[in-house]
Amino acid sequence: MLTKKMLRRKLRLIFMGFAIPALIIGSLAGCAANGHRTNDQKSETYGHDGYMGYSNSNPNLPNKLTFLNYDSDRKLIGQVLQPIEGIKNSRVSFNGEELNVRITANSKLTDAEVGALQAKAQQVVQYNMPRYHVNVKVTR
User: Using one digit for the tens of pLDDT, what is the confidence trace for 50-100?
Assistant: First the structure.
């Protein structure tokens, strides 16, 4: 003969045997949509471009030729130094986050003008290359 206590225990076991697996299956089935809407509309994704489809969402991820690199930085430094008067030649070298710019000034410049040239070049390069520690050295 089943007592109330035994009956409750059997019902609890039956409930755990069916309800808990049903909840787990239901929650997993909800995850199976995987980003697609059920009303015949697909969710929009970024294009596949070799970096798991995410590089279109963040333009600074290293992909293809659009990422910032030493060659593009060197060209930009040449462009920003070109309008400055008194520069005969310039060389750029990188050492991690250190950016070294060596400028050859015109021999006609005075010492004060060379100092002003160095300050101007330091200011222009540092403004355009904020991710580097810029060192400018001017020689004649």
Answer: 555 554 555 555 555 555 688 889 999 999 999 999 999 999 999 988 999
- The percent helix, strand, coil of the chain (3-state, each to 5) is 40, 15, 40
The per-residue pLDDT for range 115-128, each reduced to its tens digit, is: 999 999 999 999 99
Residues facing residue 98 across a β-bridge: 95, 133
* Count of Cβ atoms closer than 10 Å to residue 64 Cβ: 10
* CA atoms within a 13 Å half-sphere pointing along the CA-CB vector of 51: 13
DSSP string computed for 22-63:
HHHHHHHHHHTTTT--SSS-PPP-----SSTT-TTT-TTS--
Distance CA 45, CA 35 (A): 9
According to CATH, the topology of domain 86-139 is Alpha-Beta Plaits (3.30.70)
Do residues 100 and 92 touch, judged by C-beta distance below 8 A?
yes
d(CA 10, CA 14): 6
Tokens 């950016």 locate to 99
